[in-house]
Amino acid sequence: MTNLYIGIVLVLFVAILVGFWQLQKRHIKFSTRVFIALGSGVLFGAVLQLIFGSSSEVTTKSIEWISIVGTGYVKFLQMLIMPLIFVSIVGAFTKIEGSKDLGKISFNVLATLLATTAIAALIGIASVMVFNLDGAEFSQGAVETARIAELSEREAQVADLSIPEQILEFIPVNFFADLSNARSTSTIAVVIFSAFVGVAYLGVHRKDKEAGEFFAKIIHSLYAIVMRIVTLVLRLTPYGIFALMTKALATSDFNALVNLGVFVIASYAAIIVMFLIHMLILLGLKVSPIQYLKKSFTVLSFAFTARSSAGALPLNIETQTKALGVDEASANFSGTFGLSIGQNGCAGIYPAMLAAIVAPAAGIDIFSPAYILTIMAVVTISSFGVAGVGGGATFAALIVLGSLNLPVAIVGLVISVEPIIDMARTLLNVNDSMIAGIVSSKRLKTFNEEIFNDDSAVVKSDI
């Protein structure tokens, strides 16, 4: 009888996937299909949970097959991270007129990403205080126990490294190994190597224009091919989102969700406040937040549902250049750097909140200004090298908690609500990278007001 139920579940799952394919054939907007997939996954997963339970054989066996679609989609996104970083950064250098602009763009983008991460850390700490979560204890079930055991292995990778040693880990020793994501810091290592290639290009182009132009053509061709691969993968988004949300809802422990409800609310409160600060930055630049939100809705909605900053990179850059009026160099730098540096949600708010929650258990006064500044500093420095697809927030939290000599078990205890929080965190990460692009473009006086104010200049979402 169990096999019959599994078969029925899988038949229904495939039928819904076919339904998404029909929506694509009818040219329903990409963002609409993604949200339909999100809602369908929530509904289908909840039905499985209510009928069979989260730990029944029917649910677990069905999810194993369903995960081929969901986990497969995530793996495809992970496949794209390194090629995207390389071609985007090197491509950005081919669009820079001179080394003077390079320095200004790099400074403005990095300063914005890091400054907002420090602010995000402060907001995260304040949220813990407001919701009285400092010293809070969460229940531990079988899933959480397994997660904590897994984290103990990952912690060993960074536990014995001081912050200077962690910074040295960013330097690429074997570029090809880092292209395969062999290390936890491979993302930032590829960023650094790509920057070296870009700087070398500028030097060659200055001395031998013909050789430089030939290299630029190669990079532009590679960029076009990688973007085409990205488009093919993005077409799988509704199917992947549906499978991922089905798994999340079908296997969730609702008792754990209730137990962690205040943490979820506090996290979303902090994320919303930080998002409003982003809007204040736009106001300070005399950029309309309302017009910005209208133009960036497609990429932000994708980031929210797909939970992938890397997957959102093509839409991110296209939105900045074609809809927001940001120059191509600033857009490429901010979008790409934002994958691995200064992610406000995953590397700012999240680890700061966890550090503030567990600090009292270690006998630390979380209200101490010195300790608050310490958390902000450690979070900002540790925000380098956070991967743009799943797991980045966990790695950032391990780095921060390890550097502050705090227990890491808290990371495993909140696993039940990770998918729920991660959606908003990813949206905030992508939003911050676009804000950095606008800041850079505004300061370089290359921001195109006409494109920004033109309502017809939008990113087409029919993928």
Which SSEs are present, and which pair or pack?
Layout: H1 2-25, H2 30-52, H3 57-94, H4 99-130, H5 142-159, H6 163-168, H7 175-179, H8 186-207, H9 209-234, H10 237-250, H11 254-259, H12 261-284, H13 289-306, H14 313-324, H15 328-340, H16 344-358, H17 369-382, H18 392-403, H19 409-413, H20 418-443, H21 449-453
Helix pairs in contact: 1-2, 1-3, 2-10, 2-13, 3-8, 3-9, 3-10, 3-15, 4-12, 4-15, 4-16, 4-17, 4-20, 5-18, 8-9, 12-16, 12-20, 13-14, 13-20, 14-15, 14-20, 15-20, 16-17, 16-18, 16-20, 17-18
Protein name: L-cystine uptake protein TcyP
GO molecular function: L-cystine transmembrane transporter activity; symporter activity
Organism: Carnobacterium viridans
Notable characteristics:
mainly alpha, transport, single chain
**Spatial shape:** globular
CATH superfamily membership, which one? Sodium:dicarboxylate symporter
Global mean pLDDT: 84
- Residue runs with pLDDT of under 50 for 5 or more positions: none
Task: Report the top-level CATH class.
Answer: Mainly Alpha
Q: How many β-strands, per DSSP?
A: 0
Subcellular location: Membrane
InterPro entries: Na-dicarboxylate_symporter, Na:dicarbo_symporter_sf
Family: Belongs to the dicarboxylate/amino acid:cation symporter (DAACS) (TC 2.A.23) family.
Protein name: L-cystine uptake protein TcyP
